[in-house]
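Components:
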Amino acid sequence: MTSSDTPSSFDFNAYCVAHRHTVDTALASHLPPENQPPEILHKAMRYSVLAGGKRLRPLLCLAACEACGAPAHTALLPAIAIEILHTYTLIHDDLPCMDNDDLRRGRPTSHKVFGEANALLAGDALLTLAFEWLARSQPHAPRTSADLVRTLADAAGHRGVIAGQIEDLAAEGASPSAARVESIHRLKTAALLRAAVLLGGLSAGADDDCLAALSRYGEAAGLAFQIADDLLNETSTPEQLGKAAGSDREREKMTYVRVFGLEAAQRRAETLTMEACDALSKFPGSVEPLRAFARYTIARKS
Amino acid sequence: MTSSDTPSSFDFNAYCVAHRHTVDTALASHLPPENQPPEILHKAMRYSVLAGGKRLRPLLCLAACEACGAPAHTALLPAIAIEILHTYTLIHDDLPCMDNDDLRRGRPTSHKVFGEANALLAGDALLTLAFEWLARSQPHAPRTSADLVRTLADAAGHRGVIAGQIEDLAAEGASPSAARVESIHRLKTAALLRAAVLLGGLSAGADDDCLAALSRYGEAAGLAFQIADDLLNETSTPEQLGKAAGSDREREKMTYVRVFGLEAAQRRAETLTMEACDALSKFPGSVEPLRAFARYTIARKS
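Structure:
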């Protein structure tokens, strides 16, 4: 990740590299080992989680924890929990009965490598493990553990990500609608990015004002991120994306670009980024990382 | 449910009818309503959960709570949480890429009614909602909430039910093995029945001795239940089962009957039932319901 317009005193790129390394190391050590039975399940879980990726959700979680005045490692288990939950959504989304995608992050999708049944179960296992990690994450603050589980379940479940996937499937080929695309994007993407920063805040023991501000930040930055995704899907090469470009258009997906056009979508993403940054006025810790993330979501190239 | 050899002072049938009514009412009121979007998701969730069924897991959860000296309603939310988690395993198990079953409890399976994508997502949503309910279940005892989430995730995840499903799929058509069938049954069925009684005990604030005894009870009764299931699959009519009889044999599933024969399987189930009852010696509350359940698991006709 690079962000050219962050203050020179804060090195966003170095921040991301360091935290991403922490996250990748924690994921590798916390996921069940491949040589433990059932081997194929554990292989499939690790294959999809350890395939790289930006680690945006865990990094946002750690940055929110720091903004609320606690060291990043306080939120490490919740951070990797939200990453494996995100991975489960990708595995199930790629299945033949859903989007039927062959490639993800430049590699064959889980069901292409392990078969449909194992991919389905690897997704189920990652979803389950995410809640187990949250329940284990704050042994000395059990109320926080319960809040973490509630927050993630709320964002990932029938009122959040899954509602978004249902609406997304129902909208394929339907006539473009501004209200509909915004709803899908809020549910399918923004809900989980908002949860990521809330998990960070909760882990830090943040007060209600900080949590409310994180919620506004996550909602706006999350929506901006998905609009930027729509823009990238139209304008990038397959090499940049790690999957077929223009695939949303071919599938008549309900995207921001399709509804509003390229320029209006770009402007909306910029406005949302400003809204996200405006939410960062009163935090006890440094908000530079969160501000840089908001700017990065629309400046990124993949 | 009927159990002819329970003491006359305890009416097991009336107990089951009353508690099943409580469970069914709680499920109907806690599941998201059908007229709330996304309607098709909520319809699919309710279709599978409210299809009847024995409600064995929630009833065991409530009975364990009472055995530990607390009123049954203390464990009501965990009881219905484990039922919707069980329902998710059935929906995903029935999918074409898994067992490809058309009938469940005498009705078309979820994917037959709602399509594969919606069935997949309804299962995901039920799994997620189960953890949300657990996290909300003990607002005044958050440590218990965290323990409930850990316990259910442990039983349902990559070390429990999902490991059992992977082993089950891998064992289809393989040569019969006593160790293998016992491992599959312990993971696929006993793990969740054991979790059901543990959730009841945890909700009651049970001490470690009671929890350990519940664990032994659940493990033995759970294994007996699955062996009885194998016996019923061989000896029942399709009307009794609500699905095709003898389907395990046709699919060369690894069953107790296939490995040990009918008589030895029956004897093993009886021994396990005695083991389960032996674990019930020191509880502050009434253990009659748990004892009756253990006997019922092998006496049932469906």
